[in-house]
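**User:** I keep going back and forth on a fold encoding question. It is easy to fool oneself when nobody else works the same problem. Could you pick a protein and write out its sequence and tokenised fold? Could you put it straight underneath, so I can go through it closely?

**Assistant:**
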Amino acid sequence: MEKFEELFSRSKAVTPGGVHSPVRAFKGLDRAPIFFESGDGPYLKDQNNKSYLDLCSSFGPLILGHRDTEVQTSIEKIINKAWSFGAPETYSLELAEWIANEIPWIEKIRFVNSGTEAVMSALRLAKGYTGKNKILKFDGCYHGHVDSMLVASGSGLAGTATASSAGISAAVASETLVCKLDDEDSVREVFKREGDDIAAIIIEPLPANYGLLPQRKEFLQFLRKITKENDSLLIFDEVISGFRVALGGMAEVSDVVPDLVTYGKIIGGGFPVGAFAGCSKVMEMMAPTGPVYQAGTLSGNPICMVAGLNTLKKIKRDNLIEKTNSACKIFADELNKGFEDKNIPMQCIQFASLFFITEKTDTPIRTIDQLPKGHGDHFKELYPKLLNKGLYTAPAAFEVGFFSSVIDENLSKKASQDILEVCSDYFNERK
């Protein structure tokens, strides 16, 4: 801890809050964050040479674990040939062709440098294509730090929105409409009132930024229907779920074809990347063929493109999505059985290779107001104990966990047993 305190002090002297993304600061945990040195397969190693099983996977991108040897070899080859061109090259072309070939409803794709940038561009495209001004999002879905998406629900009236960050004007917030997840009536109400000016609905089809909130397939299908009825677009934000829950993401799982999709994380193989994609009719509105402008000096970076392509090829060739999903299910099943056997009032919510551990509830959790009220307090107490066990998960109460393909059945069972031991001791102490 002493070394981390010293590093954090140095970092705070030159960086706001000492970090380059807020969740890394261990805020609320009454300790300095861990500073890491290296990653290898399923493990992280910190500056004190302590190893941890990584159940965060860099918040999702590392589906192959750390420094997969095949992907690393491909990176080493390209780095001796190309870093950046700012010009057409074949590396982004090959990745674009691969994705378009694997996902039938994607005809055109454009690469950017982050999920936030992908969402920002997709929203601008939706407004430019439809000629409408407003976007409908859902409370509990996170779409990056785009100004218009950093809003929360208003006080009671479906569709109202207020900024949840300083620096966002009321005018910008007013163009974002907010509804509750899993609530068709609130969506109908907003469309009845604002439908003529709604350019698109955007949703995480698997909300995974404020707990894990799996949605009913029927709700996603309803969104597809109402957008078509109102000449609005449907945007799936699959920055997290794309190429993780299935090769075709939640669009494949839910059998819902969106007009636009945003990607990130896995398609860069651990390197900075984002993308937005859809049918030619909509995508051709982008400059230089259309009037909607977007550009990026480092978009389609050769290193990111090669890492992403080789990651996706390996995922498909070795059937790794299904294997990773299976390992995560074993982990969740072991936990839930142990919670029940030991009378621990906890549950592990699992979808594909994502998981979220929280207090037990009687009904499925689909909205943020259904999340247990004491979750944050439990997390603060349990998290340091998990670190002591050598388990690294996201250092924030409402972030989800991610499995990588290198966490096998044995590691899954060992992790679940360690978590059960920590939770059992914790709840026994509280009796």
Summary: The domain at 34-67+319-430 is CATH 3.90.1150.10 (Aspartate Aminotransferase, domain 1).
